[in-house]
Amino acid sequence: xxxxxxxxxxxxxxxxxxxxxxxxxxxxxxxxxxxxxxxxxxxxxxxxxxxxxxxxxxxxxxxxxxxxxxxxxxxxxxxxxxxxxxxxxxxxxxxxxxxxxxxxxxxxxxxxxxxxxxxxxxxxxxxxxxxxxxxxxxxxxxxxxxxxxxxxxxxxxxxxxxxxxxxxxxxxxxxxxxxxxxxxxxxxxxxxxxxxxxxxxxxxxxxxxxxxxxxxxxxxxxxxxxxxxxxxxxxxxxxxxxxxxxxxxxxxxxxxxxxxxxxxxxxxxxxxxxxxxxxxxxxxxxxxxxxxxxxxxxxxxxxxxxxxxxxxxxxxxxxxxxxxxxxxxxxxxxxxxxxxxxxxxxxxxxxxxxxxxxxxxxxxxxxxxxxxxxxxxxxxxxxxxxxxxxxxxxxxxxxxxxxxxxxxxxxxxxxxxxxxxxxxxxxxxxxxxxxxxxxxxxxxxxxxxxxxxxxxxxxxxxxxxxxxxxxxxxxxxxxxxxxxxxxxxxxxxxxxxxxxxxxxxxxxxxxxxxxxxxxxxxxxxxxxxxxxxxxxxxxxxxxxxxxxxxxxx
Length: 553
Known about the structure:
By secondary structure, the protein is of the alpha+beta class. The chain has 14 helices and 20 strands.
């Protein structure tokens, strides 16, 4: 990866920062009646109906980290459950004449740039080849059929991004949001796999090879033209699925070669025939950050994980499928409600990188750390906190924050003053501040949004940009890791009886200034908030697949 690519990525990140004086470049107005299509279909492709079978495999969320004694055998039914709980529709919402779908994988603005593809061979009930997953109908659309899937069953899931779906609303900052959404999607897939006793592992496949494996580089299907940029799918990641009886997928180059001789079918539906804007900075960042490398042993990625105590079983008795389906992004929080301290510590503990869901899908060593605005946690002072997520960051990061700032004169490890705080958590109180000051600060830094100030706590995810020096593709990996952390917070919040919300809009450099960060190595990349939600009785909820009768488990 050239120095030029790194410069392009760094320049893109700097260019797309929000500032108090001006937001990053975006559309001046939105026509909500002409937004990009939320679902893509492949007309003419053979369809394989997937069973709505997740409830048949339900087990307690609190024990999800434990490997089941009898993992589910992969077949069409269990694949249906995997896709239902990762990328499927969780509910329909309506308000007056408006109706929209919610999905199990979160997305910025509910715009869902991520498209999912299944590659399989020898899996019972699933034709060998490449399939596009259609979440609207919960079916596989067979794009490329292989005559021979290989000597042993195998299964992989590939993800792409229709970046225009995000750019339509968010302008130049959309590339960031697409990568966060890929991270959320990988985390959603990993949690669904854990429910079945499976594991997902990322593979190092060059972007051009991945595009070929997903069939999104075919000029006859995705023709060039003035508005072709709205239809382009950006190759993102390929993940091997490990389960009983499953072999490793073919290597990327071998799979791409096999698909060259496949029988192809289906034409992609249009995303947006008449866009009003174009953002070349997004295309530049995408081109500069594509992966050019693969690794031996079929490209399997094995990031390093520090030794940590196992994540304790959660006290929640709800089923994992139930919590996955009920996950929502909170729109309003009740400032009169607080969060139990034990629940707060558990939420943070679940974000530490362990080799289990959702961090099985991590593509690089951990580089995301948490800056916390603690507002309403019982038994903890309101103030600014730091959670380094790796031992190395625990050594380096505190020295980069707030040196000489009088607000941080009393900084100390929380475990030294609170025996209930797990020592392995490494949580640091930087400075205790009054509630009103904290509310003003949290609200202002998250683009003046009340949800950052009326919650129990909010946070900024701080990325270590030193990893970009080796490979500009690490920019994507860093943002995706932030999405994985967000997915852990989403589900852990639901398990704790509260709710989370990702916040993509924040003022980048003012966040650094608030925590006394001067070194450009550390950059805020994503915000999140957790609190007690206030519902909206005007919005009606209906089941996800009314056109299908769901069988009882």
